[in-house]
């Protein structure tokens, strides 16, 4: 495969043609923040936290879905980007009902970590307080839609790795809603294999194991990495 040379934060980098800016930066030891990205599944640029500046472009580009090209010059941590990322996190908090003090993922939440990393201590946007339900009809797991940030990691993991296609997003805009099956209670969806991959993939406390108390939820991302690797090497058996 062809190799291209480019600059990321003024550092000379070589990368395979067609690789994303996010993957290229990671290989070079440059971290770009993201919430919707998950190794092993397709990127969809849902969270917009990985926006970067590219010389010659009049708009900011999502690093996870933008491919590197020869001579590209990229900036990943300018003051403008820091401002936009902080604003994006503030909007995520204002759009949902995120009460960290009573969340199972308190202390182990990627949204919470991102708020700390961006310096967010409040949201300048009015809170929407959407009316969202909690579904605990599944025998092992539950979903609190108040904590969902629509990263769609659960949708993609269930679709691309487990192949069960249980999760999807219905409606648009402020009416968006994460659903299971044909908008059925989770416990009534026959396609669900109860594998728990969606629980491991969720960056917040939206999808959780029953019985988890406040701050008790922990995830092991290596489980997902193992599943992806096992499938690639045909080691996975059902």
Write the layout of secondary structure elements.
Elements (H helix, E strand, L loop, with lengths): L2 E6 L2 E6 L4 H7 L23 E4 L6 E2 L10 E3 L3 H17 L14 H9 L15 E2 L5 E4 L8 H10 L4 E4 L6 E4 L16 H5 L5 E3 L11 H12 L6
Parallel strand pairs: 1-5
Antiparallel strand pairs: 1-2, 3-4, 3-5, 6-7, 7-10, 8-9
Chain-averaged pLDDT: 93
Q: Uncertain spans, ≥5 residues at pLDDT below 50?
A: none
Helix content: 25-40%
The tally of beta strands, per DSSP, is: 10
SSE string:
EEHEEEHHEEHEEHEH
As a whole number of angstroms, the C-alpha radius of gyration is 19 Å
Category from helices, strands and their pairing = alpha+beta
Shape: globular
- Separation of termini? 35 Å
User: Based on the structure, what is the oligomeric state of the protein chains?
Assistant: single chain
Strand content: 15-25%
Largest sheet: 5 strands, mixed
Distinct helical segment count: 6
- Main sheet strand line-up: 2-1-5-3-4
Can you offer a commentary on this structure?
The radius of gyration is 19 Å and the shape is globular. The protein has a five-stranded mixed beta sheet, with helices on one face. 25% of the residues lie in helices and 16% in strands. It has six helices and ten strands, in the order E-E-H-E-E-E-H-H-E-E-H-E-E-H-E-H. The chain is an alpha+beta fold and 238 residues long. It has helices spanning 21-27, 79-95, 110-118, 153-162, 197-201, 221-232; strands spanning 3-8, 11-16, 51-54, 61-62, 73-75, 134-135, 141-144, 167-170, 177-180, 207-209. A hairpin with a 5-residue loop joins strand 6 (134-135) and strand 7 (141-144).
